[in-house]
Amino acid sequence: MTHRLTWDDFPPVVRRRLEVLLDAPVERTRSCTGGFSPSSAEILTAHSGRELFVKAVRGRDNPGSLQLNRDEAAVLAALPATSRVPSLVDSFMEGEWFVLATEVAPGYLPKQPWTAEPLDMVLQALDALQALATPSPVGGLRLVTETLGPDMLGFDRVAADPPEDLDPWLRDRLDELRAAARRGIDALDGDTLCHSDVRSDNILLADDGAVAFVDWAWASRGSRIADALQLLSSVEDPKRVLGVNARVDAVLDSHELPHQVGTDVLVGVLGFFVDAERRSADSSLPFLQRHRRARRDSLLPLVRERWA
Questions:
Q1: What is the pLDDT of residue 1?
Q2: Greatest extent of the chain over all pairs of C-alpha atoms, in Å
Q3: Using CA atoms, how far apart are residues 56 and 38, in angstroms rounded to an integer?
Q4: How far apart are the first and last CA of the chain?
Q5: Residue 118 φ/ψ, nearest 5 degrees
Q6: Phi-psi region at 41: left, alpha or beta (left = phi > 0; alpha = psi -120 to 50)
Q7: What percent of the residues of the chain are helix, what percent strand, and what percent coil, each to the nearest 5?
Q8: Pairing assessment for the beta strands 51-58 and 97-102 based on DSSP bridges
Q9: C-alpha count within 13 angstroms, C-beta hemisphere, residue 109
Q10: Which long-range contacts (CB under 8 A, 24 or more apart) does 16-21 make?
C-alpha cells in the first residue's frame, strides 16, 4: 500500500471547513489502511463524538486520484440511502485540494487471508445490495464493458509483445485465452449498479454482521455477477481451503449462467495482471506493481484449474 496524506498535511482552510461540517474542533484522527492512492483516508472525531471519513488530495499528489475522488463524490450524491454504502456529507474544492467527506461506516477490514464465513457474508451482502440496485439507480454511469473491458484485453497486448518470462502454459494458449477474455467482457454487460473495485480493502465488516462497501470511484453498470467474480478473483487461497472455484460456480448457478462464463471472466482479469505487471508503474503509487504481481501469481492457478 502507498503513503497517504493525513490531517497534518491539510492546510488550515481545509481543516476549518471540515470542522464546520463536524460543528466542533477535531479532537483526534485515525488514518485508514489499504488502497494505492496518496489521497487521505482519515476518520476525524470531534469532542462531541461526531465523526467523518475524509478523502483529500491535490492534483500534484496524483491527478488520477483527484479525479477518482470527484467521480466517487458524484456517485455517492446519486446513490439512494442504504446501510451498505456510507452517505455523502459534502465534497468541495478548496484551492488545489479536492475534499470528499462521508459518514463513517462501522466495522473493520476483513482479515487476510480470507476465511469462509466472512467471505460468504460479503458475497451475500453484495448480492442483496445489487438486487436493490437493478436497474441501476444512478444515471449516467458507463458500462462495465467500457470501463473494465479494455483492461481485460491484456492477453491481446501480451500476444503482440510477449515477455521472455511469460508462463509456458499461457504462451501455449494465447489465442484461446484472447477469445475467452472477449467472451468474458461480453458476459459483464447489464444494468446493475456495480462497484467495480470490490476487494478486501474496500469492504468493512461490523460486529453485528453488517457489511459496508466503500470507495465507489469506479462505479459502473453491468452484470449482477461482475462484482462477485471480481471479488473472488482477488481471493488468495494457496492451500485450497476456501474452494474459490466452487464459490465462482455457486454465483453463476444463482443467476442460471453456465460455468464457462466464470472461466472467461477470470481469464480476462488474469490477462490484465499479466500485462500490467510488466509495465512501468506510476512513481506516486510505489506498491502497485507488487500488488499486480501477487494477483497474477494467485489467479493463474485458479484459471488453470477451471480451464481443465
A1: 44
A2: 63
A3: 9
A4: 34
A5: -65, -35
A6: beta
A7: 45, 15, 40
A8: antiparallel
A9: 13
A10: 17/92, 17/94, 17/99, 18/44, 18/52, 18/54, 18/99, 18/101, 19/46, 21/52, 21/89, 21/90, 21/101
**Residue with the three cell numbers 466517487:** 72
Query: How many helices (H) and strands (E) in the chain?
Result: 11, 9
The predicted-structure confidence for 280-307, as pLDDT tens digits, reads as follows 666 666 667 777 888 999 999 999 999 9
List all residues 6 or more positions away from 188 whose beta carbon is below 8 Å from its beta carbon: 144, 145, 148, 149, 222, 223, 225, 226, 265
What would the pLDDT profile of 195-204 be if each residue is shown by its tens digit? Answer: 999 999 999 9
304: CB partners within 8 A, 6+ apart: 169
Burial string for 95-115 (b: 16+ CB within 10 Å, else e) reads eebbbbbbbbbebeebeeebe
The distance of Cα 157 from the centroid of its chain, to the nearest Å, equals 23
